[in-house]
Structures are given as C-alpha cells and as structure tokens.
Amino acid sequence: MTQDLHILVGKQGESTKFAYYRRFLMLPVQCRMARAALGLKIAELADLAKMSTNTIVRFEKGKELKQSTIDDLRLVLENAGIVFIPENGDGPGVRLKKSGS
C-alpha cells in the first residue's frame, strides 16, 4: 500500500494523502464495525473526531457527507487502531492493528 501512496496523484494537484483516501473510501458499515471494534459509543467517537453526534449518525445511516468529513473520521479511527480492508470480493471490513504496529 505504501507504493500506492506514491503512485496516486489526484486531479488538480490534490495531495497524495487525499488521493489515497479517495481510492480507499470508508463505507458507513465500516464506520459501525470500527466503532464496535473499539467499543466506542456514537458520542465518544463524535468527541474524538470533534464532530457532532448527528454527523456520525447521518454517516452511519448512509447519508451523504462531505468527503473531507469522512476522511477526517477515517483518520481518527485509524489513529485509534483500526485498519480498513477495502472491498476485495469478500466485502469491505475492518480489523484492529496488531500490537506494536
């Protein structure tokens, strides 16, 4: 995946990080899975992400949000220890990072 970060250059000069997130989007179901894996309530995730609980609820219900908001939410979950698994034929998912990773 590190190689993907170097290859992905978005349109109109967007950053590599942004291009990466556009390629591997977080789905609402992955957000719910990640929250469950971390044992977080909606309010706790909202507090960590500095977002309203309504924003989290809307996203998890599949409502449209700005991509930058979804990217920020994904980054918070990744920093909390979540690894996102893209759709690969078996469906999207999440897992916890190994200790020491």
Q: Please give the order of strands in the largest beta sheet.
A: 1-2
Give a short account of the largest sheet. 2 strands, antiparallel
Q: What is the alpha-carbon Rg in Å?
A: 14 Å
How would you spell out the order of helices and strands? HHHHHHEE
Short description:
Helices cover 53% and strands 8% of the residues. The protein is mainly alpha-helical and 101 residues long.
Characterization of the model:
With about 100 residues, the protein is mostly helical. It has one domain: Orthogonal Bundle (434 Repressor (Amino-terminal Domain)), CATH 1.10.260. The protein is built from six helices and two strands; from the N terminus they run ααααααββ. A two-stranded antiparallel sheet has the order 1-2. Strand 1 and strand 2 form a beta hairpin. Helix 4 crosses helix 5. The protein starts with a helix and ends in a 5-residue tail after the last strand.
